[in-house]
Amino acid sequence: MKPAIKNQLMMKNLFSFCLFFILLGCSQREEEPQTDILPALTEIGANTAGVIIEEFVLVPKDGINQSYGGPGIIKGLNVTLGSTFIESKGNDSFSLALKNVPLKNGFTFFMDIGILNRTGDYFTEDYPKWPQIYVQKIVEGNSVKKFYAKKNSCKVTLRKLDFESGIISGTFSGELYDDDGNKITLKDGRFDIKIK
């Protein structure tokens, strides 16, 4: 065999070999398991939260919104307080939203407790009454299905409510249902929020 032809065959084989490993690496990246882990269970106002939804670990992460006339940051962890929440010592609404904005597939989580003025257990009511928890399933960046708590199907345990230091911490778990009666589970939910 002529040296030129032999070199061409070697280069072609080397190219094929490299291409094979590049494609293998790409396919492995697409199928890599999720590596997010839940934050530690704390009561220090760490501004952390997370939950496991059907084995999917949801930890809030910020992202960019390209709609509404330009880019803007979407917060992965969003807390909304009623206008008199602090002054009234919790006799106003408290809501928590968790999103991993960069992910196109997964879940978003929403919790509306309503009056949050004591530590201890809070149990969900039938939608849309408070307290309420619901989850949206996200596929390719779009909400495709919503799951809601039923009466007593989820429990929120408020572990710390300190208006002086502005810390709200707790845990949650339970079951949610879609309109067809399909169920998903929430486990190991936690939040540790600094509100002022």
UniProtKB/TrEMBL annotation:
It comes from the Bacteria. This is Lipoprotein. It comes from Kaistella antarctica.
